[in-house]
Lipoprotein (Paraglaciecola aquimarina), 115 residues
Amino acid sequence: MYKFTKIIKYCFLLACLFFAYGCKKTGTKAHLYETCVDTVRSRLKAPATAIFSSMSESYINQKIKTYPNDGVLRASWTVSGVVDSQNSFGALIRSDFSCTFKQWKKEIKLEKVNI
């Protein structure tokens, strides 16, 4: 019986760790950064050569606004950083990028991408 309860405790601990750290939440800074990087990478001439600034070197800003008509809070996020990638001539070019995300009801959508 002691061995059985020990196994149950171990499984419970693993489940707690998985739910705490294993799942990415939509709307977290890491999720927004990764979505922005994936979108920017898809728009580059040579995406395989892209080297992005890390999340800690990038700028992630959140703004919260209340609309007077309905009194609902709306949030927006801006993710910006730099990427080094090859252009069509093969030269390595550094470019700034930024992505704007807006919250509509309970969804967070990518609104604008600048490279």
User: Anything to note?
Assistant: The radius of gyration is 20 Å. Strands lie at 51-52, 59-66, 73-86, 92-104, 107-114.
